[in-house]
Amino acid sequence: MLWFPAPASFTGDDVAELHVHGGTAVVASVLTALAGIAGCRTAEPGEFTKRAFLNGKLDLTQAEAIADLVAAETEAQQRQAVRQLDGELGRCYESWRTALVGALAHLEAAIDFPDEDLPAETVGQVQSAVRNLERAISAHLDDGRRGERLRDGFRIAIVGPPNVGKSSIINVLSRREAAIVAPQPGTTRDVVEVHLDLGGYPVTLADTAGLRETDDLVESEGVRRALARAEESDLKLVVIDAGAWPSIGRESLALIDENAIVIANKIDLRAVSEMTIEGRPVLGVSAKTNVGINRLLEVLQGEIGARFGARDVPTLSRLRHREALRECRDALSRALDGLQSKRGLEELPAEDLRIAIRAIGRITGRVNVEDILDVVFRDFCIGK
Ligand SMILES: Nc1nc2c(ncn2[C@@H]2O[C@H](COP(=O)(O)OP(=O)(O)O)[C@@H](O)[C@H]2O)c(=O)[nH]1
Ligand SMILES: [Mg+2]
């Protein structure tokens, strides 16, 4: 048994840890014995981390990072969680909050002592501090959702005409028979997903129905889903048939944009070199002989790395943070408008600053937080 006296334990409470043999029966009888002690009960999900938060050992972003670390499947997800657990994100938001509290204090001084000889530039200083913060928060929000995508996985859709080998490609990339491959066009109808670790980044790869006009009700629903999936993906692999080069279906052509990688499959049947579409290179591959597949993997990893790659500023990792930051930024914009237009009426911008401070404080937990605690801790497992 290990005894961790308060306040130096993980939770900040007195903690005793029993290390017992792992057999199910042994654990069960120890738990039964413990349950017989008055006041003893099993922990709720996330309760250890919640206590650590309530005892001031962690801020909320760090608590969330523990949940992320437990759930991390790839190295890049793990790195992001560890950085956040280290308090990087929390410190960034805290520094913004502190700057806002300072600006509010100056503004309140100007309101409370209108007759005193406060330096004339006070309101001007508040204005520029608020403007700088509004810019920093906007830049932080405008990050292409990279941190959230790293938590959720990068989404890639494989799309193109029927029978070009889309299902064969998902099988080659995932090294298993995830999707049915058949010579009949229109075989794939549902969206088939596989989860991959590509160079440390989590990726959800989706195979889709071939794009074509069809009277078949089920297949046309498949085509609708394929287009929807292409639309919501971070990256599209547009597959065409090397044998049909340079003709590409109208539907596929419409999907080629800056988020598309175009590949010509079946180059074992017809070797084509130096293909480009609208100035974009076309990768020749063969799902049958594996020619070009390693090159395709390299290109994919390059694309994903460029979008996720390491940055100096910690990344926003949750919708909860994004919403609070949006609220904060909007309140700051209102405060700026108010400070510009209504001289002598500083009460309104001051209230907007208070709203902004509360919004950003909710992220780290520096406010009345009871209501948001449940949201943060409910996804935890017991024992964390
Ligand atoms: N020769 C050759 N045939 C292929 C290649 N990739 C797929 N096929 C064949 O093309 C047909 C259609 O493949 P499938 O993956 O089902 O295409 P999808 O309809 O786009 O999903 C099947 O008979 C495959 O065996 C390739 O690289 N070379
Ligand atoms: Mg298919």
Would you kindly provide a written description of the structure presented here, covering whatever features stand out?
A hairpin with a 2-residue loop joins strand 8 (276-277) and strand 9. The chain has 384 residues and is α/β, with parallel strands linked by helices. Helices cover 49% and strands 12% of the residues. The chain is flat, with a radius of gyration of 28 Å. The chain has a seven-stranded mixed β-sheet, sandwiched between helices. The two termini are 19 Å apart. It binds guanosine-5'-diphosphate (GDP) and magnesium ion (MG).
Provide a short characterization of the protein structure.
The chain has 14 helices and nine strands. By secondary structure, it is an alpha/beta fold. Residues 166-167, 179, 187-188 line the site of magnesium ion (MG).
- The shape, in one word, is flat
Strand order of the largest sheet: 4-5-3-6-7-9-8
Q: Count of DSSP helices?
A: 14
Structural class: alpha/beta
Tally of structural domains? 3
Order of helices and strands: EEHHHHHHHEHEEHEHEEEHHHH
Properties at a glance:
Four Helix Bundle (Hemerythrin (Met), subunit A); 49% helix; alpha/beta; binds magnesium ion; single chain; binds guanosine-5'-diphosphate; two-stranded antiparallel ribbon; 384 residues; Rossmann fold
